[in-house]
Write a structure and sequence with these properties.
The chain has 3 helices and 4 strands. With about 110 residues, it is an alpha+beta fold.
């Protein structure tokens, strides 16, 4: 992911938590914050140490980034998304992660129709 497509600063993540909408399923929680002056969407990731060791956490983050990349044309531009992985995400493969993220984005009504 390009640098301008990431939410990295703690201040920006906290703003998404406080002012944004949240939607979730068993595997992921997604906070969405609309940014009117932004022409693209940005993604922030959070995977807790409770989920597993560094290898597991990095693998989950890679799966999430790839799933978001494949869904990028369907995601609404002008939003910041902060994705938090829950414990069941540790046992999922890439296709399950993508399916679960698609479901969460549909629940939050941020996914455009195909």
């Amino acid at each position: 992911m390009k640098k301008e497509l990431r939410v990295k600063k703690n201040k920006e993540i906290q703003e998404a938590f406080q002012k944004g909408q949240s939607f979730a399923n068993r595997q992921f929680v997604v906070y969405s914050l609309e940014k009117a002056d932004q022409d693209y969407f940005r993604i922030g990731l959070s995977v807790s140490k409770k989920i597993g060791n560094a290898v597991t956490r990095n693998q989950i983050k890679r799966y999430i980034r790839q799933a978001v990349f494949e869904l990028s044309d369907l995601l609404a531009p002008g939003n910041d998304y902060v994705i938090i992985a829950r414990k069941p995400a540790a046992e999922m493969d890439f296709f399950e992660v993508k399916k679960s993220l698609t479901h969460v984005f549909k629940v939050g009504k941020v996914l455009k129709k195909r």
